[in-house]
Amino acid sequence: MGSALSYHSRSRNITIIQNKISQEQRCLPVVVAVCNTETQINTGKYTHLSDALLLKIFSYFTIEDLMRISRVCQQWRRVGLDPSLWRSVDLSSCAHARIRDRTVICLVSRVTSSAITYIDLSGSGCSRLTNVSLFHIARQCHKLRKLCVCNRNRITSTGIEMVARHCPYLEVLRMSKCPLILSRGLGFVLRRSKLLRELDVSGCLWVTDAVLAEIGQLCVCLVYLSIEGCKKVTDNGIVNLANSCTTIKHINLRNTKRISNAGMEQFLTKLPDLEGLEIGLVRKGRGTAAVLNLVATHCKNLTFFDYQECLPTPVDDVLCQIAEQCQRLRFMGVRYQYQTLSNNLVLTLTKLCPSLVRIDASLRFYI
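C-alpha cells predicted for F-box/LRR-repeat protein 2 (367 residues):
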C-alpha cells in the first residue's frame, strides 16, 4: 500500500514537470529526459537526471509546485530547496490553498532564508496570516528587499515594525487596504528603512497630510508612491510632499476627492520630471479638461499616464495634446464609465506619439 501511494505521488509530480516544460517550450531534450524518467519510475532508475538539469526544470515552477515536488525523493528535495529557487516567495498565486502561519514558518525555516529577497503575502489564500508570519520573516530573512501584505486584515502595526527593525535593506513595501496598520507603524518603518523606494498605502483611511509630510521628510530615496483612496489627503498634503521629496517619479492619486485643480497644478509644477501619473476625477465640478491641460503643460517626461472619469466628457483634443507633448509616453489608460475611445482617436494618438505602445480604453473602473 505504501509503495503504491509513493508511485502515485511521483508520477503526479512528473506530470507537472511535463506540463510546465511543454508550456514554456524551452528545450526538447529536457522534455524527452523527463518522459523517459516516467517510464523508468517502476524500477526507480531516474537518478540519471543531474542536479543541474533538475534545477533548470524547477526554475520554471511556482512556489506551490516547489512545495509539492520536494516530497518526491531526497534528490528532488535537495534540489528543490536550492537558494536560487527561493529568492522570490510569491504566495499571491496560491488562491485555492489555505496558507496559515505554520506554512510560512516552515518555508523560511527550511530554505536558506538569507537568500529570500521578495515575499508576497497578498493572495486570497493568505487571508488567515497574522503577525506571527511577519515575526519569523523578520528574524530569518535579514536581506529582505520587497514585502507585499496587501488586503491583510489580521496584520497590525506591530508586525510591520518587527520587519522594519530586522530588515534594514527593505526597498519596496506594499500594504494597501490593511486596516490594522496605522500611522504609528508606518512612521516606525519610515524611520528605520532609509532605502525605501516604493510605498503603497492605498485605501488606508488614516493617511492624512501629516503622514504625507512625514513621508516626504524621511523617504529621501522614494520613487513610487500610491495614495489611491486616501480621502483625507488635501492640496496642502501633496504640495508639501512635492516640496520635500523631489525624487518621486511615479504617483497614484486616484480617488483623492479633496485635491482641487489648484493643488494639482502646484504639485505638477514642482515635479517636472514626473514619469508616471495615475489620476481619477470623480467629482462633477473638477474640470476634466483643465486638469488634463495641466498634465500636457507640466508633465512632458511622462512614460505612463492613466486617467479615469465617471462622466463622459469630450476631451479628445486634450488627449491628443498630451500625446503630442509627451513624446516619451509608452502607456496611456483612458477609462470612462459609460463609453470607450473611438477608433479614430486611438489612431490619432498613435500617430502623434510614436513611442506609444499600449492604449487601454476599456470600461474597467478602479474606484
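The chain has 15 helices and eleven strands.
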